[in-house]
UniProtKB/TrEMBL annotation:
It comes from Aurantiacibacter arachoides. Homooctamer. Pathway: Porphyrin-containing compound metabolism; protoporphyrin-IX biosynthesis; coproporphyrinogen-III from 5-aminolevulinate: step 1/4. The gene is hemB. It catalyses: 2 5-aminolevulinate = porphobilinogen + 2 H2O + H(+). This is Delta-aminolevulinic acid dehydratase. Mg(2+) binds at E240. GO terms for molecular function: porphobilinogen synthase activity; zinc ion binding.
Length: 331
């Protein structure tokens, strides 16, 4: 009987561990990770966030400890989000402009402790400071006004830069805010503060646990569909990204992550700035729920998702799993 051989044996390369290692196309390192952290008032406070098992809000001293841990693990950057006390929230979110607000105190403390070893990324948007939970100023008809909001966001970004933020990340999805913030940074002596634009941010169902963590969830009236994008749209994301780059963004972010790998891939093919993804709170919670339900190991479920972001073209990922992933990667 005549024997038949496959023309090509794809399995030859997979037959041994050394060969699989040698042929691996995508490599994940702790340097790919940005770690989002929640800040709260007080000292020596650690408050677990119920909807994000394993994640806590820390008072500023605890944030500094986490920041030092990030440096030790080889994580290059953290992102800070404040849980503003209720009595400091207002319709106009004025607390965002207070040079001594929780956020600025945390930025200063981390920069003092870690200096150049760790980048601090800050979110530019008013939702942790407003009594209505929207990212901007709401007019009489309930609409978040664009240009009025941009004027406040510029002052918020400057306030963060003055406190020492290395990257300001507008997450508000107003039109024209990247140019306005870039101009203000230049004119006020912050030429090296980077802008990472939440360029394609979708009106997603996956932000719920985050809103718990910053305390805006219960306050939010309505949704954010007049500024965040429709999950059905991809071409529109390319237009958003092109605008943010033209306005002066140094890097762009796609958010959420896993359900938008096509957007990451398209952005990477089309633009020459670094593309980041935010593996958001709901994605974190789903992985943890999967682990608890016995779907698989944390390492397995998490690392497969993180490598998918890299494979799709990400320069890096924001993930609440950053310290766990960094430890698994030997950081
Ligand atoms: C606020 C902001 C949100 C997130 C980051 N910045 C929530 C929202 O837009 O409602 C979500 C992050 C997450 O879910 O992990 N502008």
């Amino acid at each position: 009987m005549e024997r038949h051989f496959p023309n090509t044996r794809m399995r030859r390369g997979r037959a041994t561990r050394w060969s699989r290692t040698m042929l691996r196309e995508t490599v994940l390192t702790p340097a790919d990770l940005i770690w989002p952290l929640f800040v709260t008032d007080g000292s020596a406070v650690q408050e677990p966030v119920g909807s994000l098992p394993g994640v806590s809000r820390w008072s500023v001293d605890g944030i500094v400890t986490q920041a030092r841990e990030a440096v030790k693990l080889g994580i290059p950057c953290i992102a800070l989000f404040p849980n503003t006390q209720g009595h400091l929230r207002s319709d106009d979110g004025a607390e965002a402009l207070n040079p001594d607000n929780l956020m600025c105190r945390a930025i200063r403390a981390v920069k003092q402790a870690c200096g150049d070893d760790l980048g601090v990324l800050t979110d530019v948007a008013l939702d942790p400071y407003t009594s209505h939970g929207q990212d901007g100023l709401v007019d009489g008809r309930g609409y978040v006004g664009n240009d009025d909001t941009v004027a406040v966001l510029v002052d918020q970004a400057l306030n963060q830069a003055e406190a020492g933020a290395d990257i300001v990340a507008p997450s508000d999805m107003m039109d024209g805010r990247v140019r306005a913030i870039r101009m203000a940074l230049e004119m006020n002596g912050h030429p090296n503060v980077q802008i990472m634009a939440y360029a394609a941010k979708y009106a997603s169902a996956f932000y719920g646990p985050f809103r718990d963590a910053v305390g805006s969830g219960g306050l939010l009236k309505g949704d954010k569909a007049t500024y965040q994008m429709d999950p059905a749209n991809g071409d529109e994301a390319m237009a958003e990204i092109a605008l943010d780059i033209a306005e002066g963004a140094d890097s762009v972010m796609i958010k959420p992550g896993l359900a938008y790998l096509d957007i990451i891939w398209r952005a990477r093919q089309r633009f020459d700035v670094p593309v980041f993804a935010y593996q958001v709170s709901g994605e974190y919670a789903l992985i943890e729920a999967g682990v608890a339900a016995g779907v698989g190991s944390r390492e397995g479920l998490l690392m497969e998702k993180l490598i998918a972001f890299k494979r799709a073209g990400c320069a890096g990922m924001l993930t609440y799993h950053a310290p766990i992933a960094a430890r698994l990667l030997g950081g």
